[in-house]
Amino acid sequence: MAAKYRERIRFECELADDPPICCFPARLNQAFMNLIVNACHAIEARAATTGSEFRGHLRVCSEQRENE
């Protein structure tokens, strides 16, 4: 996926250690992929409307918080 956008969008990831969670990994992966692809499409749409060689920046971060 990233290879398609590599020339136009800079990707940055800052991920915390994976906490133990009860989930369906494939579904969680699909949800994250959908968010990232949607962000890439939005960046490209913005570039198309401005007519510029807009270089986007997509930053994904995570953190683990204690229960509040």
Number of strands: 2
Report the major sheet.
Answer: 2 strands, parallel
Span of the ends, CA to CA: 36 Å
How many DSSP helices?
2
Residue share in β-strands: 15-25%
**Helical/strand content category:** alpha+beta
What would you report as the Rg, rounded to the nearest angstrom?
Answer: 15 Å
- Summarize model confidence as the mean pLDDT: 84
One letter per element, helices H and strands E, the order comes to: HEHE
Write a concise keyword list for the protein shown above:
single chain; about 70 residues; alpha+beta; two-stranded parallel ribbon
Description:
The protein is an alpha+beta fold. The chain has helices at residues 2-5, 25-50; strands at residues 9-14, 56-61. α2 (25-50) links the parallel β1 and β2 (56-61). The chain is elongated.
Element layout with pairings:
Elements: H1 2-5, E1 9-14, H2 25-50, E2 56-61
Parallel strand pairs: 1-2
Summarize the structure.
The chain is of the alpha+beta class and 68 residues long.
